[in-house]
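User: I've been trying to design a sequence by hand for this structure and keep getting stuck. Would you show me what you'd pick, starting by listing the structure so we're on the same page?

Assistant: Good idea, let's start from the same input. This is the structure you sent:
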């Protein structure tokens, strides 16, 4: 294994740890509620606080630190993450635990964005897709392994031990980053407010709409995917955990497949093809009502397309805004969390008004289709801009 690949794998492990800190709370929220003597509704705000801190704090910190070396930012964000984990481990009450979620949300967001930017600098241009796909694999692996492992640790020891273990493992990752990651410059030195001018680019704004529509449409269904499989696709409840594990493995494969295809056929083709497949598969799910096997097969294809497209979106922003990639990627992660919240909220409203999950895939497919339209516009404008720049030169 060459050193570049080793560095990418180390960074991916770091993403796995930070992503686990985000996702694990949903799996142990009842345990936290009982241990701290608070209502389940209040404990649920631990997820909200994390998401808001991630969404709001990440782009601001990334913009203010854009000139700093990427290696220094990796180590600094990981150090703050470790502090947040230790605060969660020692938290005597819900207030301190809430504060730790703020620290974890901001530090995890900054670490993830800097990892994406660093990965693009470490590997040659023709390997960026594969590198980003590997990093995204770290997040999807947290869905596959992080949550069940965390729940097992909570039962074996206690929920606080999860955060102590995350802190200790992160110290090891920080040591490896310090030893293996070469010095890397930050983005071009641009004044704070000038950096946000990138948001005036139609290419970037329409690109961010891809994320907003895609995440909203996907989470409109995925928030309720287990009851959808049981009630609409007639999946026996005893098979739900196995199918969720299977979908996670398919998603991991999709991340790697997306990276491979980007390197081979280009990011724009993979982005468009992935969105077409995503919209088509999610929209056809109601047609398989009561037919478990074909329904799960199409749900698997949807997961494959979803994760492949996620890799393509990150690579697309790196290619379209190379001088401000860290800022754009951080804003994109904020839009991701906004889309997730809108999808979950919208799905709840639809369920309340109709009393069924049958229509969720169609509405989700419509939103993903709007993401496909935004991608088509963004790519067309990007090509037009490139031709204009060439003609001026």
């Amino acid at each position: 294994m060459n050193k570049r690949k080793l560095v990418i794998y180390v960074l991916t492990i770091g993403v796995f740890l930070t992503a686990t800190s985000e996702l694990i709370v949903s799996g142990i929220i009842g345990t936290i509620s009982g241990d701290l003597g608070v209502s389940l509704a209040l404990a649920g705000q631990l997820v909200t606080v994390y998401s808001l801190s991630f969404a709001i704090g990440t782009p601001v910190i990334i913009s203010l630190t854009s000139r700093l070396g990427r290696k220094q930012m990796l180590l600094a964000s990981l150090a703050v993450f470790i502090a947040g984990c230790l605060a969660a481990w020692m938290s005597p009450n819900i207030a301190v635990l809430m504060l730790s979620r703020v620290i974890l949300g901001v530090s995890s967001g900054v670490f993830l964005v800097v990892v994406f930017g660093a990965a693009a600098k470490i590997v040659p241009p023709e390997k960026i897709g594969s590198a980003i796909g590997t990093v995204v694999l770290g997040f999807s692996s947290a869905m596959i392994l992080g949550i069940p492992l965390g729940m097992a640790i909570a039962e074996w020891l206690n929920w606080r031990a999860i955060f102590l273990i995350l802190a200790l493992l992160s110290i090891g990752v920080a040591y490896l980053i310090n030893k293996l990651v070469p010095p890397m410059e930050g983005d071009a030195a641009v004044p704070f407010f000038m950096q946000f001018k990138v948001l005036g680019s139609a290419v970037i704004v329409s690109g961010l709409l891809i994320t907003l529509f895609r995440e909203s449409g996907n989470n409109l269904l995925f928030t309720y995917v287990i009851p959808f499989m049981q009630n609409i696709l007639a999946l026996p409840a005893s098979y739900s955990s196995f199918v969720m594990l299977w979908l996670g493995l398919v998603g991991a494969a999709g991340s790697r497949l997306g990276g491979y295809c980007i390197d081979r056929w280009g990011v724009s083709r993979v982005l468009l093809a992935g969105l077409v497949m995503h919209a088509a598969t999610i929209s056809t799910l109601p047609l398989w009502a009561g037919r478990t096997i074909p329904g799960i097969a199409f749900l698997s294809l949807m997961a494959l397309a979803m994760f492949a497209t996620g890799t393509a979106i990150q690579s697309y922003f790196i290619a379209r805004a190379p001088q401000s990639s860290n800022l754009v990627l951080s804003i994109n992660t904020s839009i991701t969390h906004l889309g997730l919240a809108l999808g979950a909220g919208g799905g709840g409203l639809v369920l309340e008004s109709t009393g069924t999950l049958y229509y969720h895939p169609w509405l989700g497919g419509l939103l993903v289709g709007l993401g496909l339209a935004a991608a088509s516009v963004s790519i067309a404008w990007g090509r037009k801009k490139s031709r204009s720049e060439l003609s001026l030169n």
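That's my pick for every position. To get oriented when you compare it with your attempt: The chain has a mean pLDDT of 83. The first helix runs from residue 3 to 36.
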